User: What shape does this take?
Amino acid sequence: MRDLLRATAGERLGLAEYDADFYATVESVDGPILKTERIQTFREPGSPSWEAFAEGRWEEALRLAAEPDPELVRFFQQLEERGSGLCRLRIVESPFTPYLIWELHFLKYRADAGEQIWVLDAGAVASSEHIHGPVPELMVTGRQAVYEVVYDETGTPVGADKFVAPGVVEVCRKQVLALLDVAEPFEPFFRREVDGTRPSTVVAQEPPDAGTGTG
Assistant: This one.
């Protein structure tokens, strides 16, 4: 996927533009929305739960993550009514970063709200990444568009590159679906690997992992 995207001209969108464009596309989405996450540490300013985590307030971060979000539930319900859904592929490396421990707890509540989440060990993509580079951070909206989310050096989202060429969208869609086919459903993974754990350290400004997880 990364080779294909690097060889294709995309449209650079700022963060606000990306957000507006994505939700406009979702209004007429013609298939599942596929999301890939590969970087092991992000920054999420604006998320109360992440900000509590980043400041070392773990119990508060969990409490905030668990707060009901009717708007999010409604969003997933609307996607289901359109015959779609949001399918997230979270690639994980061991040992888990503090951020990843927080995010996996946060995702538990998104799964409860209706998001479809699968987890894949980084070892499953190691040989491919050795040749082609890390799996990119994508949002594939049916057969309409691919957004490659762009982050700064701290792991903060700053926008996205949008691709609409049908051949590019189809290749990305099929490759993400192939990874989802070998991934594990979120719930059993969470129960086995994450439930009850907490980060040993909290670093608000920690940059993305410099190993195979960058991209």
Observations:
- The longest helix spans residues 98-113.
- The domain at 2-146+167-193 is CATH 3.30.870 (Endonuclease; Chain A).
- Strands lie at 11-14, 33-37, 86-92, 116-121, 138-141, 145-151, 157-163, 184-185.
